[in-house]
Amino acid sequence: MAVPLLDLKRHYLPLATELEAVVLDVLRGGTYIGGPYVEKLEKQIADLCRCKRAVAVSSGTDAILVALMALDIKPGDEIITTPYTFFATAGCIARLGAVPVFVDIDPLTFNIDKHLIARAVTPRTKAILPVHLYGQIADMDAINSIAAEHDLAVVEDACQAIGASRDGKMAGAIGAVGCFSFYPTKNLSGIGDGGIVTTNDELLGEKIAILRNHGMNPRYHHHLLGGNFRLDAIQCAPLTVKIPHLPEWNNKRRANATRYRQLFDKAGLTDSNFRGRGQFIGPGVTLPTEVTPGHIYHQYIIRVSSDHRDRLIAHLKARNIGCEIYYPVPLHLQECFKYLGHHDGDYPESERASIESIALPIFPELTDSELEEVVTAIADYFG
Ligand SMILES: *Cc1c(COP(=O)(O)O)cnc(C)c1O
């Protein structure tokens, strides 16, 4: 049986009638920029994240870019972030002429290592940009306290963590600004590109709303240098239909993660546990470490020793089981960041994660027999 990594058709079908109705409503209504669906989406996200303001923007990438613009990030400013993330996190920093200062990850959570942040702070540091990777919120208490001590802003790259929580707080409402993506593979997915910025700072929220529309306020008067970061009404409308279902989808992802653990345990594959710092005891798989029950499993990432990783992926692909590497090249080793002067070995945990991790199917509509199929295929490999 083939098991896809993600199946957007299965996701669409149960809501097809409602989704098609709102898309048609936009088409027929003639309000294509701004309007009631944009406002409704912003209200729903502000409620979901329990924050004061949400500003819909053109993508998760633009959410990060406009958040940094609103914080007046200038050329030469330093922003502390992780090298083990999607490109956009650091790309937005660099596009403003600022410098991404990388800090290695905690190997158990794949999130920025709080113990390494303080020593990366310099007089030029302006902000910390943690990523809530794979749907698990970074250690924000530690990050916020370092930020407070050095007077730094905290921007959450929450693109993979919509609806995630930690210690009673929602992703996107813990730092100064939160950035989300509605890219079709994300837990809350649009029918194209989209994103949103969240904040509890009303002045900052208003500034972001103005920057999104060319910095224009009032019309044709530009005090700020903004851009076109608007989200179309036709993208907002389907999202307003999907948001009420997000908690149930995130719960289903969590249930799938629980089921994987049972199945891997039953198959005897998890006794050779990863001990951190790249040490494996014999063959087998390491399952994700959940430090908070608010983890929403945007991705389900297992680790295997690097001598098995690529062979296991080939084995899974041959059996038509979807899997992927997030991320094969950490950002400090990307060609476009060569000018930063990093080398192999600079961020050992990120480098190790890039050669040991495999993403398995975790989407909400997976059936139990599909989960069993994935684990059976991995058990057959280790044979
Ligand atoms: C998806 C993603 C982004 C970018 O979002 P887009 O909507 O694709 O622009 C940024 N950061 C992380 C961590 C992401 O996963």
Characteristic key phrases:
two-stranded antiparallel sheet, binds pyridoxal-5'-phosphate, alpha/beta, Aspartate Aminotransferase, domain 2, seven-stranded mixed β-sheet, 383 residues
Could you characterize what this model shows?
This protein starts with 7 loop residues before the first helix and ends with a helix. The chain has a 7-stranded mixed sheet with strand order 1-9-8-5-4-2-3, sandwiched between helices. The chain has 2 domains: 8-245, Aspartate Aminotransferase, domain 2 (3-Layer(aba) Sandwich); 246-382, Aspartate Aminotransferase, domain 1, CATH 3.90.1150. It has helices at residues 8-12, 16-29, 36-49, 60-70, 88-95, 140-150, 202-212, 233-242, 246-266, 306-318, 348-356, 368-382; strands spanning 53-57, 78-81, 99-102, 125-129, 153-157, 165-166, 169-170, 177-181, 195-199, 300-303, 357-360. A hairpin with a 2-residue loop joins strand 6 and strand 7 (169-170). It has 383 residues and is of the alpha/beta class.
Give a quick precis of the structure.
The chain has 383 residues and is an alpha/beta fold. 37% of the residues lie in helices and 12% in strands. The protein folds into two domains: 8-245, Type I PLP-dependent aspartate aminotransferase-like (Major domain) (Aspartate Aminotransferase, domain 2, 3-Layer(aba) Sandwich), CATH 3.40.640; 246-382, Alpha-Beta Complex (Aspartate Aminotransferase, domain 1), CATH 3.90.1150.
